UniProtKB/TrEMBL annotation:
Protein name, entry field: Haem-binding uptake Tiki superfamily ChaN domain-containing protein
Listed Pfam families: Cofac_haem_bdg
Gene3D superfamilies assigned: 3.40.50.11550
Higher taxonomy: Bacteria, Pseudomonadati, Thermodesulfobacteriota, Desulfuromonadia, Geobacterales
InterPro entries xrefs: Cofac_haem-bd_dom
Native species: Citrifermentans bemidjiense (strain ATCC BAA-1014 / DSM 16622 / JCM 12645 / Bem)
């Protein structure tokens, strides 16, 4: 990594200063550009630095859907080989296994629990095309308790400002409101999964690895706050165009990391 900026005062800080803040937080969110290897190397570096045998830690993964938790448990416990697990990963996520492999191996080798965060894909697709109201009672029962698609949140306002013009130019008739409902559903579902896990495993530090627009403060962290599950958090992001040139603000992220170019 080339440099780390503390967004609150725009100071360049060391990796040790960054991880000291992360060690003091209950929740550490590390955003990723899914197909960028350096982003995943950053995630693993931070996870390594946070490993402390005196404090429980678990890693929450956007790449795994909640209905695959048992297979994820089997992986961590060593009941599945890499060859057996790769098809499970492919069913959950479209990006290359090799981008995430070292993180999964590190968790298994160090017995760090992995938590499947994502809402089942079929449910997300249905909401994005037909809206949350189209879900059946059975489909809603498959969501973590407390999950919602209420658009009265600051993340929806952010989506409107950032993505609505582009969405409408390429949408092929899809409804922007449904897109927002699907995003809120995912943020809320992942937040509720974190909340339920911490209730079952108190005093566990949660490290969440998700795409950038789920890790920003007005996404998963806000959904946790809205549900009454307040956790001290640190949000760490790779630098992307939307955050460059001083555009990153503390209402969105805490630390901005400039990654090496390939």
């Amino acid at each position: 990594m080339q440099s780390i900026t503390r967004v609150s005062d725009h100071e360049i800080v060391t990796f040790q200063q960054l991880t000291a803040k992360a060690k003091a937080a209950d929740l550490v969110l590390i955003g990723e550009v899914h197909d960028k290897p350096a982003a995943h190397e950053l995630q693993l570096s931070i996870i390594r630095s946070l490993q402390d045998h005196k404090q429980r830690m678990a890693i929450g993964l956007e790449v795994m859907q909640s209905n695959s938790q048992q297979q994820l448990d089997n992986w961590v416990s060593g009941k599945m080989t890499e060859e057996q697990f790769q098809p499970v990963f492919a069913q959950n996520w479209t990006y290359d296994w090799r981008l995430y492999r070292e993180i999964f191996l590190f968790a298994r080798d160090n017995k760090i629990p992995l938590v499947a965060l994502n809402v089942p894909r079929e449910t997300v697709i249905k909401v994005s095309r037909q809206g949350y109201k189209a879900l059946t009672e059975e489909e809603r029962k498959g969501l973590s308790i407390g999950t919602n698609a209420d658009l009265n949140n600051t993340h929806t306002e952010f989506l409107k400002r950032t993505f609505q013009p582009l969405f409408e130019s390429v949408s092929n008739g899809r409804v922007f409101q449904y897109f927002c409902e699907a995003q809120t559903l995912r943020n809320s579902g992942m937040a509720m999964t974190v909340a339920h896990y911490v209730k079952q495993q108190p005093k566990t530090k949660m490290v969440l690895l998700t795409g950038i627009w789920h890790a920003v403060k007005n996404a998963i962290p806000e959904q946790l706050d809205r549900s009454g599950n307040k956790m001290s958090s640190v949000v760490i992001m790779p630098e992307i165009q939307e955050f460059s040139g001083g555009k990153a603000t503390t209402d969105v992220i805490d630390y901005l990391v400039q990654l090496p170019t390939p």
